[in-house]
Amino acid sequence: MDALTLFGLFAVTAMLISYALEDRSRWFVVLFAVSCVLGSAYGFLQGAWPFGLVEAIWAVVALRRWQLKR
To answer: How far apart are CA 17 and CA 49, in angstroms?
Structure first.
């Protein structure tokens, strides 16, 4: 496995875990947003710009949800 694939695996795993734990704390919503940014970077780095774009949108949505939970 190369470094880019490991980076993508980390980003997607962090998204999954933080999404599953969002009800426990609003900080998991922030972690989800950060994970989406990492997933977006992964998508763009591997050349899958539609994936990168959708993950960037998810990051914005998650940050908005975090603001509303405050």
So the answer is: 24
CA distance 16 to 18: 6
pLDDT of 70 strictly over 90: no
The DSSP line for 11-33 is HHHHHHHHHHTTTT-HHHHHHHH
3-state secondary structure of 47: coil
**CB of 55 closer than 8 Å to CB of 37:** yes
Q: Please list, residue by residue across 29-57, b when 16 or more beta carbons sit within 10 angstroms of its beta carbon and e when fewer do.
A: bbbbbbbbbbbbbbbeeeeeeebbeebbe
Q: With a threshold of 0.90, does the pTM exceed it?
A: yes
